[in-house]
Structures are given as structure tokens and as C-alpha cells.
Specification:
alpha+beta, Jelly Rolls, four-stranded antiparallel β-sheet, 25% helix, 22% strand
Length: 336
């Protein structure tokens, strides 16, 4: 049975004026409602220029067209601490269960090969990390394209945090203090391989994002599906919308807001209408995962708890929590 088309809320943030504009509270209420109900929204009026977007997609295709040996020279670490770099198909296994073991883990590790390869671009403090970035002579303009594009993504991220703060009844600058030592950004190229379509094989397992906010840019192939609580938690399509960024809440921001903002399960499937003559086309998406300064202690935001709504989560070091989740992407069997 085909999935129904899923229309995420479309929210235009172009006119937001840091709480001073006449429509600011309307924008803030709309965004918080979308993230509370769905965990996802299409954001327009974001300010990320189309030439920057086109530039990173061009560079993404150039990178994934490199010889395997060249990509393997930038291989990602598997300890959860240093995960920037290249992951070949099947290397990283997305799982929602951080404690998976035994038969379930064995099934995941030895199941169908992964249908995507990824590259977490090496950017630290807004600058190129030479250990996790292609050399300029190999891919001219790659580093500059991703740095300048992600600079604009970071601006959108901060604007969205200010809108969220206002929508939750706080000062618009509430989240600013957690970014004084810089904003962590992780641009990631996700290349879903083309090939013979196989019934029942998805392209990325269901999961929630474990960070703060994800800004997702994708090509026209589609395949993103999101759990819709209003439809008995079934997965429904969230196709790309022209000129919009698909933005979703991660586990850490949900935790920060005491669960008011929802971190929603999602996956990538093979859209039947994309299959031509039994062949599934390749797909590119480029999320930019954004978060506060390293080692930020994430404690429940004031105003989101009280006598009738207790704190749902204890304070946690955000960096350590994310590293734990990242390490689970490379599952290893426990000693018998």
C-alpha cells in the first residue's frame, strides 16, 4: 500500500527580527508547534544562497566519484570520538537501540549491505581539518565550498534557536551563552547507491538524530519518511520542497526542552515512483548537524518544567552523550 504524501509544516522565517518584529511571536509559535507535534518542518526564507547549495552538491558528487583508495585514505574513526571522514557502504550501521547485543546485533551487522556511503566533512572551529578534508589538489574548491555553505547554515541554526527560545517563553538570547566557545557543525555527504531495486530493502534504517538541530538539503529523488503520530505512528513521506530546508529536532534539543520539542523517528526508503525499469537511482543528501560548544552541559531549559511538569532528564555532557551514540554506529559484539 503506497504511503500518503506527507506535508510537513512550511514556516517562513525571513521576517524574524530577534523578537522585535510584529510577526515574530507568530513565527515562533508556529515553529514550536511544528517541532512539538511533528519534530520536523520545512524552513523557507532561510538565507542559505542557492549557489552555495549547488556548490556543495557538485563537490559531493566529485568526492564520491574519487577512486575508492582516495576515499579510504580519509577513513572515519569508529570509537565515536573521531567520526569525521569517509564511511564505506555497510561500515556504519544506524540503530536506535544503544544496548543492542546478541541475535539482534548479529542480524544488523551481517544483514543486507548498507546502501549508502558517507563523508563527514572535516571542519573544526569553522576551519578545514586537514586530516579529514580532501587535499586541494585532489578536489579544488571542496573545502571552501563546504566552509562557506556551512557558515550560512550556522546562521540559520542560530536564528532557529532564537525563534525556539521566544516560542518557549524565554529570552531570544537564551541559547547564545552555550555557543561562546563556538558552534559545532558536522556537514555530511550521504550518497545512496543506485542499482537494481530490491523489494523490502530500505536505504537507511529508522532512527532519531542524536544531536540538536539537523538542517537537511536533498536532491529531487526523495525517500525521506517520518513517523506521524496522528496516523498511528506510521511512516509517511516527507518529499523535498523547492527552496526549503528540511529541519528536524535531535535527541539533545528534545532533552534540553524537557520533551516539548519532539525528536521524531525517520528513515530513508526507495520511493516506488523513482524506480525506472527496475533500477533505483542514486540519491544525494547533505545534512548539516549543528550544536553548541563542545562539552556543553545540557540541563532542562527553565520554563519547560514546574510543579505540573517535572524534569524528565538529568543534566548530561552533550559531547559525551553524542560520542556514545556515534560509537554505536559501529556495533561490536560483546565478549562471550
Amino acid at each position: 500500500m503506497p504511503h500518503a504524501t506527507y506535508a510537513l509544516p512550511i514556516i517562513d522565517v525571513e521576517d524574524f527580527k530577534d523578537g522585535l518584529g510584529e510577526n515574530d511571536r507568530t513565527i515562533a509559535s508556529s515553529l514550536v508547534a511544528a517541532f512539538h507535534d511533528r519534530g520536523f518542518a520545512y524552513i523557507t526564507g532561510h538565507g542559505v544562497t542557492q549557489d552555495k547549495i549547488d556548490g556543495v552538491f557538485e563537490q559531493a558528487r566529485r568526492f564520491m566519484s574519487l577512486p575508492t583508495q582516495a576515499k579510504m585514505a580519509l577513513l572515519a574513526g569508529t570509537d565515536g570520538v573521531d567520526t569525521k571522514g569517509y564511511s564505506y557502504p555497510g561500515m556504519a550501521k544506524v540503530t536506535q537501540n544503544a544496548e543492542m547485543d546478541g541475535a539482534d546485533l548479529d542480524k544488523l551487522v551481517h544483514g543486507a549491505p548498507g546502501m549508502n556511503e558517507t563523508f563527514r566533512v572535516g571542519i573544526v572551529n569553522g576551519k578545514s581539518d586537514p586530516e579529514r578534508m580532501p587535499k586541494e589538489e585532489d578536489l579544488p574548491g571542496f573545502a571552501e565550498a563546504f566552509i562557506t555553505w556551512s557558515d550560512e547554515c550556522v546562521q540559520v541554526y542560530h536564528r532557529l534557536l532564537r525563534i525556539i527560545a521566544l516560542g518557549l517563553g524565554s529570552d531570544v538570547t537564551y541559547f547564545d551563552r552555550f555557543h561562546l566557545a563556538g558552534t559545532v557543525r558536522t556537514p555530511t555527504i550521504q550518497h545512496y547507491l543506485g542499482g537494481v531495486a530490491q523489494a523490502g530493502h530500505g536505504r537507511l534504517n529508522e532512527h532519531t538524530d542524536y544531536g540538536y538541530l539537523t538542517l537537511l538539503f536533498q536532491d529531487s529523488v526523495g525517500g525521506l519518511e517520518v513517523v506521524d503520530a496522528a496516523k498511528n505512528n506510521e511512516f509517511v513521506r516527507a518529499p523535498p520542497v523547492d527552496k526549503a530546508i528540511t529541519v528536524n529536532v535531535g535527541d539533545m534539543l528534545s532533552r534540553w526542552t524537557n520533551g516539548i520539542l519532539k525528536s521524531t523517528m525517520h528513515r530513508v526508503s526507495a520511493p516506488p515512483d523513482a524506480v525506472k525499469d527496475g533500477v533505483l537511482p542514486e540519491r544525494y543528501s547533505i545534512p548539516c548537524f549543528c550544536g553548541p560548544s563542545p562539552n556543553t552541559i545540557v540541563d532542562t531549559m527553565p520554563g519547560t518544567y514546574g510543579p505540573n511538569r517535572p524534569k524528565l532528564y538529568p543534566p548530561v555532557n552533550g559531547t559525551e552523550h553524542i560520542q556514545m551514540r556515534q560509537a554505536k554506529m559501529y556495533p561490536k559484539k560483546k565478549a562471550q
